[in-house]
């Protein structure tokens, strides 16, 4: 490395940001033929790219509300430590990645100590859903936002936020994993149909959603006939998932291997999923679905007061219409879920409507036009050059 090489400092706060950071590191190196210096805070994925973290990412994890008070001193220490490291490293650009409760606090501390360092926020906060005032506040400590969703730049502009560029969702870089080839498409339509059930990626979600999903999928089997039920699970929660589905009246196969998960997405006829990123993942894979979610009464009241979107289903928001049926709170009942899922197993108007809508995602998300991590790297390097010119 030489003094002329750009220095990029990355700060991720959880696994999703760590993955994004790792892809960005690879893209930065490719764009600069390796002539870039990178440092920061991350996890195992960034470490695999040769970037050791200041501290273990697990230090930022909090499990349960009761653990928050005891964890706060350590978290605030890590915020100060990270901000000090950024200032001490004198990078050309700081990239904060997702996890706004941690990364934005770091950015504010850094901005308070230097006004010349460009700060890029990789992953637009959900200002389009709640706490819209955050967009304008971000202008005081963020110079540019890299958006994963195509509608976010327009929203940021309308809310008076920082400049924003749509770079694309990381799902775009996984098309070969998610989309079926000709043989797999035939398997998708063959019998018995494979039905994906995704109750969540958190233990609390699994405990809340698995019973009603199990009752719903049992009803579907009783009315449709033979189906193959597959439940993808992250390895750390596999035992939790297995315990939950033991109570089901239908057999289901739990899979944790990444290759098996991808194959299941490529051959699934339909899916029953909790709301979240999984809905966009399924839509990109072309799998018709219904989505559902339940929270406590207090959480529901808070959500109704704060959240203002036409749908909580990410796939619907990206498509701009409510194509995927959503069943929330009291509507998240086994009989309603089964009734909505059944038509998706046959050649029906309900199934065709979703398949047709999902085919529009390539144009909406600019799939095939550019690689998201490469787009992000281009903006980051431009900001790094601008920062270096300002300091010079």
Keywords, please?
18 helices, 12 strands, 2 domains, alpha/beta, Rossmann fold, six-stranded parallel β-sheet, 392 residues
Q: Quick gist of this model?
A:
With 392 residues, this protein is an alpha/beta fold. 48% of the residues lie in helices and 14% in strands. It has 18 helices and 12 strands.
Assign the structural class, choosing from mainly alpha, mainly beta, alpha/beta, alpha+beta, or little secondary structure.
alpha/beta
State the shape.
elongated
DSSP E strands, number: 12
CATH-derived architecture of the largest domain: 3-Layer(aba) Sandwich
Q: What are the secondary-structure elements, in order, as H or E?
A: EHEHHEHEHEHEHHEHEHEHEHEHHEHHHH
Structural domain tally: 2
CATH superfamily of the largest domain: Glycogen Phosphorylase B
What's the story with the biggest beta sheet?
A: 6 strands, parallel
What average pLDDT do the residues reach?
90
DSSP strand (E) fraction? 5-15%
* CATH topology (fold) name of the largest domain: Rossmann fold
User: How many H/I helices?
Assistant: 18
Please identify the top-level CATH class of the largest domain.
Alpha Beta
Structure, explained:
It is a single chain. This protein is an alpha/beta fold. The protein folds into 2 domains: 7-168 and 368-391, Rossmann fold, CATH 3.40.50; 175-364, 3-Layer(aba) Sandwich (Rossmann fold). Helix content is 48%, strand content 14%. The protein contains 18 helices and 12 strands. A 6-stranded parallel β-sheet has the order 2-1-3-4-5-6, with helices on both faces. The radius of gyration is 22 Å and the shape is elongated.
């Amino acid at each position: 490395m030489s003094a002329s090489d750009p220095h990029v400092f990355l700060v991720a706060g959880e696994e999703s940001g760590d993955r994004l950071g790792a892809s960005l590191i690879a893209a930065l190196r490719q764009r600069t033929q390796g002539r870039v210096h990178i440092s920061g805070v991350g996890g195992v994925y960034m470490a695999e790219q040769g970037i050791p973290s200041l501290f273990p990412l697990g230090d930022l994890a909090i499990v349960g509300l009761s653990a928050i008070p005891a964890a706060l001193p350590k978290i605030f220490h890590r915020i100060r430590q990270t901000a000090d490291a950024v200032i001490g490293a004198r990078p050309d650009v700081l990239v904060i990645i997702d996890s706004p409760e941690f990364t934005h606090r770091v950015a504010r501390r850094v901005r308070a100590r230097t006004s010349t360092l460009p700060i890029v926020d990789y992953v637009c906060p959900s200002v389009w859903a709640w706490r819209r005032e955050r967009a304008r506040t971000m202008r005081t400590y963020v110079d540019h936002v890299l958006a994963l969703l195509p509608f976010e730049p327009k929203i940021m502009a309308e809310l008076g936020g920082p400049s924003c560029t749509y770079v694309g969702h990381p799902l775009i870089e996984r098309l070969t994993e998610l989309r079926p080839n000709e043989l797999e498409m035939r398997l998708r339509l063959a019998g018995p149909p494979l039905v994906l059930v995704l109750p969540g990626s958190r233990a609390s979600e699994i405990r809340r959603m698995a019973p009603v999903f199990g009752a719903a999928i049992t009803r579907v089997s009783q009315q449709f006939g033979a189906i193959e039920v597959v439940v993808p699970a992250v390895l750390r929660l596999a035992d939790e998932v297995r315990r939950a589905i033991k109570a089901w009246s239908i057999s289901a196969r739990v899979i944790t291997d990444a290759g098996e998960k991808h194959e299941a997405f490529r051959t699934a006829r339909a899916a029953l999923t909790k709301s979240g990123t999984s809905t966009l993942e399924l839509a990109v894979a072309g799998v018709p679905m219904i989505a559902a979610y339940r929270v406590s009464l207090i959480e529901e009241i808070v959500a109704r007061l704060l959240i203002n979107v036409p749908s909580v289903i990410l796939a619907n928001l990206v498509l701009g219409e409510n194509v995927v049926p959503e069943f929330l709170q009291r509507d998240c009942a086994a009989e309603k879920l089964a009734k909505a899922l059944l038509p998706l197993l046959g050649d029906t108007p309900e199934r065709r409507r979703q398949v047709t809508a999902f085919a529009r995602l390539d144009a909406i998300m600019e799939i095939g036009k550019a690689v998201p991590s490469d787009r992000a790297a281009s903006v980051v390097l431009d900001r790094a050059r601008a920062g270096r010119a300002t300091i010079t």
